[in-house]
Amino acid sequence: MKTEEMIARLAEDLRPVRRMPSPPVLLALWTVLAASVIGLAALVFGTREVLGRPMTGFDLMHSLAALLTALLAGLAAFELSLPDRDRRWAWLPLPAIGLWLGTMGVGCVGELVQAGLDGIRFHVSWPCLQFIIGMGLPMAGLMLWLTRHAAWIRPGPVAGFGALSAAAFASIGLTLVHPTFGPLMVLAWHGVAVLVVTGLAALFGPRLAWRGKA
Amino acid sequence: MSHAQPLCLMLAPGQVARDARDLRWSALMGAAQAGDGAAYATLLAECLPFLRAICRARLRDATEAEDAVQDALLTLHRVRHTYDPARPFRPWLAAIAERRALDRLRRRGRQVARETLLDDATELGAEGEAEERLAARQLREAVGGLPASQRTALQLTKIEQLSLQEASARSGMSVGALKVATHRALQSLRRRLTGGAP
């Protein structure tokens, strides 16, 4: 078919569309959705008993870094999903990610120094993995749905940052419902779980999105 | 100094015209989002040279470039709700066209790599494979002998492996007509290549 004929056909079948909200508005919507999911999880599992006590400085910094990662990775995903946005939006969440991973690392090293090698119990924290992956993957699915138009533009980075945002929110949710805050080594498992969710979404998200758009 | 001034004078009106054109395209796209088909047709027709320029800069083959233009138009159509009329239109359009042209370029690269591998394989087994080459030529001739609509259907659905919707948008044939044409093309090829057997 000639291109001119194609234009005529596209214009002939044209239907009105609802303009997409701007990335900050989408981020606000996403944050409300994520907060609702976390709130629901807190209702189902109950909040940890130490929640009433003031957080330590370290706890606070770790949680703030996770929140910052969730928000900035979400904003980057929404911006990158649009064709005309600068690819440098991808740099925005990196400092927050660094700070977040840094607090996890510092926590682990600190504990190692305090208790010595023998004092640390190396164990797989399955509840953390299950919680973050179980909560992060459906949230990542929600994010993929919100950015589904990116299948045509930058499917990989959008799915990756979207899932990172979802997993960071899930990690915050976990610190709220954790029965006790646990050894700092547990934080490392948050990181592993977040990496799993992000990696899965970056690998399979674009394929799902492409299938959905056909 | 004497050169600088005319250059500035030449650039300035061009800049103004470009901005005015962008505003016009932006307004037309806004109307298209609201469902105005006439505005949409005008916009796409006016954008066509711009899209072709981008795709031809990336792809040397004229047919390939025109296919990329059509891909870009389809993408534009599908993501038209993502355009914000408060922002310039051209960067949005150019990003889509560049993406589709790059996709074609990558696909072409992979195809060439495969063809090279096949050529090597043919050379390695050249002695015993004359018959296969003859069969390939017969197949090409048989495809060439098909009616245009069947050839198009075969090309889009089987060779380019587009979805029926994409093939329909590209060819202007309905999904039903595409299915029938592909089926008939395959039947016809089978008949010709097996010497008239059904």
Report on the structure:
- The complex is a heterodimer of chains A (214) and B (198).
- Chain A has helices at residues 3-12, 23-45, 57-80, 94-119, 126-146, 155-177, 185-213.
- Chain A is an all-alpha fold.
- Chain A is elongated, with a radius of gyration of 20 Å.
- The mean pLDDT of chain A is 79.
- The radius of gyration of chain B is 23 Å and the shape is elongated.
- The A-B interface holds A 1, 3-12, 14-20, 22, 81-84, 149, 152-153, 213-214 and B 32-38, 40-41, 44-45, 48, 66, 69-70, 73-75, 77-84, 87-88, 91-92, 95-96, 99, 163, 165-166, 169-172.
Primary descriptors:
heterodimer; A: 214 residues; mainly alpha; 73% helix; B: 198 residues; 8 helices; 80% helix; 0% strand; elongated; disordered N terminus
What is the H/E order of chain B?
HHHHHHHH
Largest sheet of chain A: none
Gyration radius of chain A, rounded: 20 Å
Q: Average pLDDT of chain A, to the nearest integer?
A: 79
Q: What share of residues are in beta strands of chain B?
A: under 5%
The total of helices of chain A stands at 7
The computed structural class of chain B is mainly alpha
First CA to last CA of chain B: what distance? 80 Å
Percentage of residues in strands of chain A: under 5%
| Proportion of residues in helical segments of chain A | over 70%
Give the SSE map.
The complex is a heterodimer of chains A (214) and B (198).
Chain A: H1 3-12, H2 23-45, H3 57-80, H4 94-119, H5 126-146, H6 155-177, H7 185-213
Helix pairs in contact in A: 2-3, 2-5, 2-6, 3-4, 3-6, 4-7, 5-6, 5-7, 6-7
Chain B: H1 4-33, H2 37-58, H3 62-78, H4 90-124, H5 130-144, H6 148-159, H7 164-171, H8 175-193
Helix pairs in contact in B: 1-2, 2-3, 2-4, 3-4, 5-8, 6-7, 6-8
Short description:
The complex is a heterodimer of chains A (214) and B (198). Chain A has 214 residues and is mainly α.
